[in-house]
Structures are given as C-alpha cells and as structure tokens.
C-alpha cells in the first residue's frame, strides 16, 4: 500500500515485475537489483567510466539514436533476461553504466530496508535540469520530495507493525509521518487504525500489503522510480515496453488486421486484404420473424439469436446446427439476450414484461425475474456471473441488479426509460442509454452516477471495448462515436451508415478489436478501422434493414448479421 497510489502497474504501464534489471531469487534483494555494471578506470575502449570520450570513440549516435541511451537500455534488457555476463560485458566494452553508484545505492537502501540511508540520498537529490545534476540522484520534473518521503516512512511504519513493534511504529507515525501528512486526515486515521491489528496476516489484509519479505519493497522502488529522472534510473523493462509500442503501432496501422498472433519483430507487419471477411458464407433461416439481436458466446463456439419470434435459437459454431430452440417468452417478442461471461447461461428480455435466466447447456429455465410494468429492453451480466443488470421501459425499475435466484439486489433511482445497457469487462463501468438523448454512466462498484452525457441526438445502442477504455455509441443521425470513457473525449467518428427510427446495433471486432462494425437502416453492414475511422468494407446484408451485428471473439475472420428479412448471415 502506497500513499496516494492505487494502481498496480509500473510507471510505464507494464505489469509489475522486478525492478530495473533485477531477477527474483538472485541473492539478496540488493544484490539482485543493485548491480550497476560499473566500468573499471582502465577501460581501453576510448570511453571513460562516465561515458565521456577519451580517444578514438565511436560515433555518439547509432542510426540516428543516442548511443548511450541505446546501450544502457540493452544492458538493462540483457540483465532482465538473465544474461548477466553479457550485460556486464556490454557495460565494460561500451564504458556506459546502467546507473550511477548513487542511484545504485538508493536502490540498495530501499530493497534492504535501510530507510535512513534512503532518505539521506533522497535529501541530496537534485531536480532534473539543475546545473548540479551530475551523476547522482536526479528527481524528475514535477516530482514531490515530500511524497517520496511519505512512501518511505509508510513502508517503515508497516514493517515495524509486521515485526510486532507497535511502540516504534507509533513513534514513526507521530514524529515522521504526521508532519508530512498533516492535512491528510483520512490517511493518518487509516494508518492509526492499523495499530490495532492483532497479527501480521491481519495487517497485510487490511493494508493490502504483502510484507517486507514479499514484493512490497520492490513495488515501493517502482513507485519511487516514477519520481526519478529516467536518464539516471531507467523505467522498468524499457526495451520490452518500446517493442510493445512498436507492435501496437504496426497493428494500429494495419488496415485489414485479421491475424490474432502478435506481430514478429523480424519484419514489418501487414495483413492481406484477401483474408478479410467480406463475402457471405452462410445464411441461417430458422426464424420466422424479424431478427433484432445476434450474439456469439464469449468463447466463440455458439451463437444465439432472437427477435419477433417468442423463442431464441442457440446454434453451434462452426457447423451452425441448432442446439436449442427455447420458447423464451410465450406469445411475445424477445427484445434482447446476453451470454454470461462463462457462457453457461443466457438472460433474455421480453415484451411480455419479463426477463428470464436460462441454462445455455440444456435450454432449461433457471429463473424468471419479477414482472415489470413495461417491456424489458436490455440485459447484461456482471463479470462474476453471479448477478445481472436489466434495463426496462418501466421507470420504477428502469435499471436493476439481480442475483441468480431472481432477487432484486439494487435499483438505481433515476426515472427514465432504459433502452440499452453496457457493462465494462473489468466491472468498473455501467452505461445506460435512455429513450431521449442521454447516456448515464455509473461506477458499477459503488453504484454512484459518475456523469451524464447529452448527445443532442438519440442513440440506438452502446457497447464497451474489451480493454474497458472505450465506449461506442451508435446514433440515429447515422454516426457512430468512439469515446474515452474516463476523459469523455471523442476519439473517433464513423460515418456511412444510416440510423433511422429503430434500434441499430454496432460493436467492436476483428483481431485485437481493430474494427468497428455496424448494421444500418438501409440494410447495409459497414466496417471501419477503429483507430483511423477509415471505411474498410461496406456490403448489402439484409432487406429492408440490418438490425444487429456480432463479431466472433475467437475468429477474427467471422462475423454475423441479422435483419428484418428473418435471416442471419455469416
């Protein structure tokens, strides 16, 4: 647990790991992470220990890149991969150190729990750009030295509690932390409450902290490194991060990306257009009425569809045989359906004012929710498969959460008709679309309203990307809009389809969700490149309208559409 830090990622967005070239299990923490690969004074390659030229030195650049930066990143990468002899050899031959002795000493102090030494080195640190910068500890622009002290002293406080030394821990809290956190009353109150923990296990649980012998010191060092200039302490796993950015950029720039495998570093990435799904391979015509929804299961092995018929059909994939024809809502249209995250259940919504939970394996009814006063329009599952959320035209129960027993757990109180819903895969966001022009965005964990958004035009569907970052809104004005769900900034717009007066659904798809796909009131299916908004494909699908689309999450070369002509097309 760190002051003011909730995230569990490193500063460069990579998963937590060992710090800056450290390998878990190699000697003591300091020995594992503190090797700076120093160069002896008698270095004979034309470079002195600090990288300054002394003789016939090679060029200061490498194909346009700074030679020192490239070399130090290579040294770190070799150490990360366990090639320590090679890393030391590169350091010795090049004359460049991974980091200076002062930075190495700071790392050692943190990993060994030498808190006085760590604070002493921190006190001597200078700000980036200072004339005294030298090779010592350099703080990044905007870094707060007091915040770094709080992190160090908080770790010290927790470790003393873990050692069952409450008197010394209380002294640290009163004389070292309180002066720095005088205005952070909630933090001081929380830390004070930890003094009451009866065991180390209780402390770790309440503080969300894994102890001095866990990863807590490495996590602390990682957070501290965010405040230190990257020129003296490289961000963790820097080469891996740069290579990841290269791959992401190549995928982003691939207009017909259909290969789910990560791009090779050996060559530039491109996908041939001939592999892009652009022709109708199969038509399914078991339904007798208009179709309003078609959805692949999360594993891509089944497909479910519904519409004006009183039943839903579950198909096997890829042979598309009918597995179940479930009479979901007797003598009533089926407005919508949703697969549970484990694909074992399906919830359906009907114009008969009911929502029902079904066993997707057997087709048996699990439970019917209490009757609504108006049709149920939409449904989504929570990530744990234990609860679901319904949207209804019933303003008294327009947005509700239920358990599998059919018990209502919570009712959001805003009085509007809900027409469509989306929940983020990470379980943080819940988005409800009303019958007017508004989106209501909730924190699904706290159930609090985060914000409301007036689109100025009526939306027809909403969906959230698999990384839980982006919200896709389809609208009646013939435009789909990609929005950053946190900042609310519009990232991209997609045009070329028509909205009309009915629900037209859109979604994400393809390898790495590289595309946006949408039905259209004029019967077309339209596909755009997600990042650029460039139209990739446009084809006739249904007559008179294409109502819904679904891209197979397990097969980037397969998507399904359905429409008013009673057909599903693959």
Distinctive features:
alpha+beta, disordered N terminus, four-stranded antiparallel sheet, 570 residues, 27% strand, single chain, 11 helices, 22% helix
Q: Do you know the CATH architecture of the domain at 289-454?
A: 7 Propeller
CATH superfamily of the domain at 289-454: YVTN repeat-like/Quinoprotein amine dehydrogenase
Task: Tell me the fraction of residues in β-strands, as a range.
Answer: 25-35%
Main sheet specs: 4 strands, antiparallel
Number of E strands: 32
Q: Total helix count? A: 11
| Secondary-structure content class | alpha+beta
**Strand numbers in spatial order across the main sheet:** 5-32-31-30
Radius of gyration: 29 Å
Named CATH topology of the domain at 289-454: Methylamine Dehydrogenase, Chain H
Unreliable spans are 1-35, 38-55
- CATH top level of the domain at 289-454 is Mainly Beta
Outline the structure in words:
By secondary structure, this protein is of the alpha+beta class. It has a domain at 289-454: Methylamine Dehydrogenase, Chain H. Helices cover 22% and strands 27% of the residues. It is built from eleven helices and 32 strands. The chain has a four-stranded antiparallel β-sheet with strand order 5-32-31-30, with no helix packed on it. A four-stranded antiparallel β-sheet has the order 6-7-8-9, with no helix packed on it. A four-stranded antiparallel β-sheet has the order 10-11-12-13, with no helix packed on it. A hairpin with a 5-residue loop joins strand 22 and strand 23 (470-475). Helix 6 (145-162) packs antiparallel against helix 7. The longest helix has 18 residues, at 145-162. The chain is globular and about 75 Å long. The two termini are 50 Å apart. Mean pLDDT is 89; it is low at 1-35 and 38-55. It holds the Pfam family LisH_WDR26. Keywords: Repeat, WD repeat. InterPro entries: WD40/YVTN_repeat-like_dom_sf, WD40_repeat_CS, WD40_repeat_dom_sf, WD40_rpt, WD_repeat-ST_regulator. Residues 42-62 have a biased composition (Polar residues). WD repeats lie at residues 284-325, 334-368.
